[in-house]
Amino acid sequence: MSDSPDLFAATTPPPEANPPAKAEEGTPKASARASLLKDKADAAEVPPKAAPPPRAAARKAEAAKAANASQSRVSRGLFLGAFGLLAVMMLGTIGMGVWIYQKQTALELAARAPVPATPPPVIDTSAMEASLERSNAKILELQKQLDAQREERDRTQGRLQEMADRMALVIQQSSFMPKTDAPRQTDASSGQMAALMPSVSPSTSELILLKERNRLSGYADTAIATGSREALQRIVDSLMDPAMKDLFHAAQAEFKRVQAYYEISVSIDPGYTLPVQELFKDSAARAEADLSPAQLQGVLRDSKQPWEARLRCAYLLRASTAPGTDEALLKAIKEDPSLDVAKQAQTSFEKRVARRFRLFDIPSIEAWWQSQGTGKATVVPMKEPSK
Question: Which pTM does this prediction carry?
């Protein structure tokens, strides 16, 4: 220790080396310097510390460095551990939140989803359906019967009303008809005769005649609008009824009105052709040219077929050479319920026999047919509406 050099002593200059300058004594700068020199001298009097040997200092420095490194490693490990724990906690919190959210969402969706309905039990309803179909068929049949009875009742009521009106007209005519053997009445007895006459006044008679005239016009309108043979037959019955002699000309005019209409009218579509496959399902015919005259005659005689089909068959039979064609056309002229079909049948018949007749003049047609000696069919008289 004694051999170590005194660093402070070596660095402190001797007093003789730096003598204070007398010229600066008494100034502030000189006082500060003197004070500094005094402090240095006091410090020089303290025994200097011995400097550690170089190896010990190195070992101490290494130990301090190792301690610092160890402390640094410990601090770093603690920091990393704390950071990892914090990260794990944060991830766990986030995962827990996500799980709770998914769980809540699943519960809400399950609550909103409709509950699947339980399928109803399978019940065999074939027997019930069959029974229902039979019941519907019976109901339809009964409905048709009721409709037919209603139509028959309406026709009966109309006929009864017509008969009542005609009876009233006959009574009115007979009440005003003078008798040849009746004595001349004086003015005094004319009032007594008027009291004994039926209670049908001239005004009532005019009303009855007007009503019958309107009925005849209605028959003609129906015959023109719908082609009803029955309506035209009512006009013919009025022509032949002696009780309707006051309306003979009116009935004749209505008949000629219907006749004139059908002379110039064409009710069917000019491009109409027979639906061959529908009419003859079991036949190999596919067009009108494939049909035989017997098939055409069968459709013409069947009043249940559409009137257009019957009319077309009457037209196609105009050039047929098969036997029985004339008879089939004559039957259609006299009996077909459609006046359009009757007109076409008469047109085809006239072309076949090369003779013209007045339209719907059935008595003249029958008389000529019988005069030719070829009328083998029985003459069918016109039927009255009441029979």
Answer: 0.48
For tokens 């339809």, name the residue: 140
Q: Tell me which range, 155-164, 196-205, 218-227, 373-382, is most confidently predicted by mean pLDDT.
A: 218-227
Tokens 């037209």: give the residue.
315
How many whole angstroms separate alpha carbon 362 and alpha carbon 382? Answer: 9
Model confidence pLDDT, tens digit, residues 303-335? 899 999 999 999 999 988 888 899 999 999 999
